[in-house]
Design goal:
Blueprint: E1 9-12, H1 16-21, H2 25-39, E2 47-50, E3 57-64, E4 67-74, E5 80-89, H3 99-119
Parallel strand pairs: 1-5
Antiparallel strand pairs: 2-3, 3-4, 4-5
Length: about 120
Amino acid sequence: MLVRRQPRRLVWLVDSLDSLRGFPASVREKFGFALYQAQMGETGENVKPLHGFEVPVWEVRATDSSGTYRAAYVVHFSDAVYVLHVFQKKSTSGVSTPKREIDLIRKRLSLARALAGKRGD
């Protein structure tokens, strides 16, 4: 018997969805599939944990001829996947996420926690 699971809600914080809309189609497709997998309770192949947070924060990476793109999200809250930040990585050296982006993700994680708390998650 096939049991169909319902995907979790997808909540885009601040300008994350608008930022994503400006990315190349191939990047949007990769991010979309990875976020759908997160909604279904799975982890995509281009997804890595971001370290240094009190709850698991995940980062999707996608590369296109125009550059490297990343999306950070959290699934710690019971009914939704919160997309914290979507950005193009500008640094050409190193693979780590720049500090200013980490700081923004940290602020938006607090926002996600507050929003989830209002919903009773």
